[in-house]
Write a structure and sequence with these properties.
Shape: extended
Number of domains: 2
Number of strands: 0
Radius of gyration: 20 Å
Structural class: mainly alpha
Helix content: over 70%
Order of helices and strands: HHHHHHH
Amino acid sequence: MSFLLAAVLALAPAHAEPPPPAAPAADPAGAIDPGLRADIEHLMKITGSADVAMQVMRQMLEAMKGLAPDVPPSFWDEFLAEVDPQEFTELMIPVYAKHFTRADIQELIRFYESPVGQKFIREQAGVTQDSMAVGQRWGEDLARRVMERAEAQRRGR
């Protein structure tokens, strides 16, 4: 989601932390084996990676709108209009190529094309949504407990 990070950094105050190191550049001069490239594209297509990235981006943009109320709505509309899922795919191909061999990608394709792999793809959005809700409740509970201890310590002094 580095494209989203760029937008956040553009809106962030000057004292914000520096951005993380840049992701690998898009495939310079066709350095990735064409067969591996095709397999990665196929894997990303069957898993819906670009669609998932778009969903996550939309959710993050909604959250960012609340954090940046002075940013005009037209900025967010123009930002989304600039998004090209194929550009995301092209940027991700070198990342996959860096971490996986062609044999790895082919095994992943076999998994995701299997019935359980297809079920995983169908259920992943729901699992992620439920996980986020569980994580939020967990984080709120942790924060409450820490705050209660801090308050007890403050009163005990």
